[in-house]
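How a chain folds remains the central question behind the approach discussed here. This step matters because it turns folding into a mapping between discrete strings. The sequence in question and its structure tokens are set out directly beneath this paragraph.
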Amino acid sequence: MNFQIFMQQLINGITLGSLYGLVAIGYTMVYGILRLINFAHGDLLMVATYAVIYSMALFMLPWYLSFPLAILFTGLVGILLDRVAYRPLRNAPRISLLISAIGASFLMENLALVIIGGVPKPFPRPSLFDKVVDLYGVKIQVLTIYTPLTTIVLLLGLLYIVRYTEVGKAMRAASRDFETTRLMGINLDRVIALTFLLGSSLAAAGGIMWAMKYPQVNPFMGIIPGLKAFIAAVLGGIGSIVGAVVGGFLLGIGEVLIVAIFPGLAQYRDAFAFMVLIFLLIFRPTGIMGEAIVDKA
């Protein structure tokens, strides 16, 4: 493999990893507070992409309005998901929340299948992102540049919210102790709803960029990206926002480079990600940047 091909594949891996990282942040935020793996989180990617398609097709909105409106809509769907599927089970055994999350995932997928249909739809990628830049012989699509930059900007914005705002301080307090947070006068349900809003909005941004990279959407498109984002969250240290993004980059780069170096393993690309998960759970379940957390049950 020559240098140009290696750089091309490395850039592809960074782009893919940034998408995993964006979606993984939502997993790690919800887990940090509720100790819940929200298996419906990956389906929010699908919700965002269809919101873009129909806002542009039915209301003739330009992409620069459709994208933020779809992100906001998906954030509200995340709040609804918490209100309907998780809040009634707040004091139930942990397994009940997990079953509810799996049920919510199946419900969202099959609702989309019934209402929209199973035929894949093309995603309207703006021509702005189709341009190609030639950098010392390495051809880079403009979308490939914008994707990791968007991830970094959104990560920095989220870190500012979590570390320096009252809402962020309430989130950090809730992640440590529910009862003490309530005694401090913090509305815990509101804090959790805002967590779902932020996490779901980031998943929507990731879903839109995913659909621009792979411009075809269907009701089940969020399953594999969602599972790989979960692996990225575990790799980086679930509960750590920065760790989720780091894990996403590592997983994306590793996945692309393995296929580039060993083309015969291309059909086992997804298996590589799940092997990483198995080894992590056996040898380092807290991930790269995670901490051992005592269950609040």
